[in-house]
Amino acid sequence: MTQQLSIQQILEAGLDDWRKLATALHARFLTGDFSTGLDFVSAVTAAAEEANHHPDVTLTYPHVDLKLISHDVSRITERDVNLARRISEIARDQGISARPEALSELEFALDTADLAAQGPFWAALLTGDPDVIEGDEVLDPGGRLPLLWFQDTDAHETPRQRFHLDVWVPHDLAEQRITAAVAAGGQVVDETHAPSFIVLADPEGNRVCVCTCLER
Known about the structure:
Oligomer: single chain
Structural class: alpha+beta
């Protein structure tokens, strides 16, 4: 139950309400009001306690956002898939629909040729702890900050753009999101790595990657 699932296994699991973004499974359920959302979260809590596996939950007035990952291994496992299915069953029983098209996740990427020097600085600045680094990522134990990862690059002088945004979207909605951004004044700069990611630029040339879970 702690073995990491492949992208293909996740896609074949039949989780129609859920999408894998950067690291975890995500879902949004439209509850419509706070009371309905609270009842839904209470039922999810009971299911999580029964499974001894717990999602991250955000309850707001019109919807409930859920995130599933096996924190002990920092990967998506069968435990997450099983609980995702159970949560979807609860939603259906309560007449609550999912809205996967509303899902997205923001990640910051910093080009660096010296992760050993850069990593502790950014970890300390963002979280107060210079040691919360795993691989090439800064981990926020509180889950309040966007993800930050370090992209290896050759040493270079500024003003080359060194920070860029990675916007993670559901794999089946990436084309729609890109089309909307281009219609709003952007342009596609590089699609050689599609469908894993496509590089866009805003009207002033600032670059951003639209990322999906495919072919990773």
